[in-house]
Amino acid sequence: MRAIVLMCLLHAAIAVAPTFPWNGIGNGIQTPNPNAKTNSACATDEGSCRCCVMLKEMNRLRMYFNTTMNNLEKEFSQMVQSLDNIQASYTAVSVALFNEFKCLGPNQFNTLVIYKHVFINLGNGYSVDTGIFTVPRSGVYSLALTVYSDSGSPGAKLAACASLLLNGQLVAGTREINMEDQEDSGTTVVALHLKAGDKVTVNLPAGCYLCDDSNHYNTFSAFLLYPE
pTM of the prediction? Predict the structure, then answer.
């Protein structure tokens, strides 16, 4: 790459390089310094002087090339760092409850919902072992919770409900409890300012139950809208 850049710089420099006419000593050429070998050569003959001028120009080009390459390498390093920061800010999680027909609940106490099917987990913030989404980077997040349940038969009690918790505190939830519908669903979407390390979980309240299958009716999603 340095060779290509050098050729480009050399071409540009030659295109705008000043001319050095030979009109004899003192005509168009700086008065020679008797202590310098190159200037002594200039005082001897035209060929030596042109060689001297060429060496000076090559030194100038070398310094210009090195300075330009250092600046380019610095800008490239900054660009790579910026891209790394952008990539590190990618956070997107979308998970579902089960891959086969199964129901979670009802229980006599609150239960942490652990989603086992992962659609996407950019940033590795969600754990399929604990069901906890740990915020990897501070910013504004969109959180979405969809619940679905099937009572099993007409007239049976339907209790499709769940809630979003932030660090153990209730944020929002959805609740469908009746004896009129055999099946029903609900969705909650919120935008929150979260800090790195915050814990987001889904809670199944006592007496509620969720049913899912390969159609993935029960889902939880979180993604970063604006990083800090």
Answer: 0.63
